[in-house]
Amino acid sequence: MHWKVIYGKGNQIRDWLYVEDHARALVLVATQSGAGETYNIGGHNEKKNIEVVKAICSILDELRPKPTKYAEQIRFVTDRPGHDMRYAIDSSKILDYLDWLPQESFESGIYNTVQ
Fold first, then answer.
1. Is 56 exposed, middle or buried (0-12, 13-18, 19+ CB in 10 A)?
2. Which domain holds residue 17?
3. pLDDT tens, 30-89?
4. 3-state helix, strand, coil in the chain (%, to 5)
5. What is residue 46's three-state secondary structure?
6. Which residues face 13 on adjacent strands?
7. pTM of the model
8. Domain count, the chain
9. What does the pLDDT read at residue 107?
10. Which of 18, 27, 72, 99 is most buried, judged by most C-beta within 10 A?
11. Please, are residues 10 and 50 in contact by the beta-carbon 8 Å criterion?
12. CATH number of the domain that 11 lies in?
């Protein structure tokens, strides 16, 4: 049996970005920005880790159904010392200077990834 392991209470927050959106942003930066410019690329999709895991489980329930729900396999473990509760970036520069926003929502990006 496979287990989904979540550190602490699963409340750590991350900004999630679909990989193809990230690749599109990198191409845009490489071809349209000035030499030496730097940009933070964000997905505008801050989610708690537990939300992401539950979304993945829900998609698996749909795509690969089995007698029990995938979420029943989630197990929490002790959080590691010094673990940050939130990772966040300010990605406004890439919007302001290169008019870039991700094309995928969190829901469509996670579905595509799991699929």
1. middle
2. 4-114
3. 999 999 999 999 999 999 989 999 999 999 999 999 999 999 999 888 877 777 778 888
4. 45, 15, 45
5. strand
6. 48, 86
7. 0.84
8. 1
9. 96
10. 18
11. yes
12. 3.40.50.720
